[in-house]
Amino acid sequence: MVNTTDILKELYYGEKYDSLSSLLDGINSLIKVNIQPTDKITSDLADSEFLNEVKTLTDEGIPIFFGKTLRDLKCIIADDASRDHVIYLQYNASRKLVITSTQLPHSSLQDQEFSSLIEVVTLFKKYIENLKGYFHELQGIDRYCTVVDPQNPTFKEDYRRILLDDRTWLHIEVTPEGLATNVHLVGQTEKWHEKLQAGLLQWDHDVDVVENITAIFDMVHFPCQDNRFQPSIAGSVKPQEQMRCCICLCQEVPDIPGLPQPLCQNPLCGMYFHRDCLFQWLLACAGGRPPAFGVATGNCPSCLQPVTCSNKDG
Description:
By secondary structure, the chain is an alpha+beta fold. It folds into three domains: 127 residues, Ubiquitin Conjugating Enzyme, CATH 3.10.110.10; 103 residues, Ubiquitin Conjugating Enzyme, CATH 3.10.110.20; 72 residues, Zinc/RING finger domain, C3HC4 (zinc finger) (Herpes Virus-1, 2-Layer Sandwich). The chain is built from eight helices and eleven strands. Strands 1-2-3-4-5 form a five-stranded antiparallel β-sheet. The protein has a four-stranded antiparallel β-sheet with strand order 6-7-8-9. It has a two-stranded antiparallel ribbon with strand order 10-11. Helix 1 runs antiparallel to helix 2, helix 2 packs antiparallel against helix 3 and helix 6 crosses helix 7.
């Protein structure tokens, strides 16, 4: 009778297996030795067919890593521009694979069940290929503009908020085809509002998003992300550590995504709010009555000037 414990110790702690291929061969042998007549897969081990797939893809240059168990995997797919895209998977049973998370915009692929690891890689390669324009535009924004939200932007977030001055951000979303959409100002000031309204009519989808933004706001360049705390063309930058919500007095709240924003329309106010905090504040001041069309109105908690706030971002 083969001692399974000794084989497992050799697999995980021995020096015999110096590569992923040799380790997989060892695991495969262990499965064959301990296979049950019912072909039942234990809770600890994946089947040999699946492990052979892992070995095949690894030999083809697709990096695959195991997590805490052989059922948890991380797969890295590189695109033509040498960008690595990480996909996390879970092996539930023979021919049953699901995606647990990715750093890509959500698609129907993430809700499917797959019959093989090769199928996952093939479909995601095609999906990633179709996102070339999307990656290019977001990468350009992250490189040349001062992005204040998300704090740590990835390709998973399809939007960016770009600093124009210490009271105004430009919100812009990018479609999977690489086109700009839902472009608007947060913390509007008259100067930027007029420029944006005039510029949107002349937006050219044949040039990069960054080029369009530069042309609309008549900027020579944007500061690099690492210099976001240095003075910008439009004015001095408010350091993120000072961007605390005037209501909850916090910068980040677990149940409230995003940073506090300059939501008060008074350009002299200078205070930042989480959208949800300000919305709930205005509701409470109005006696809890549901607002019309999802827009709450009232007075700013700081400057007491009239203010409006939607319960939806944007």
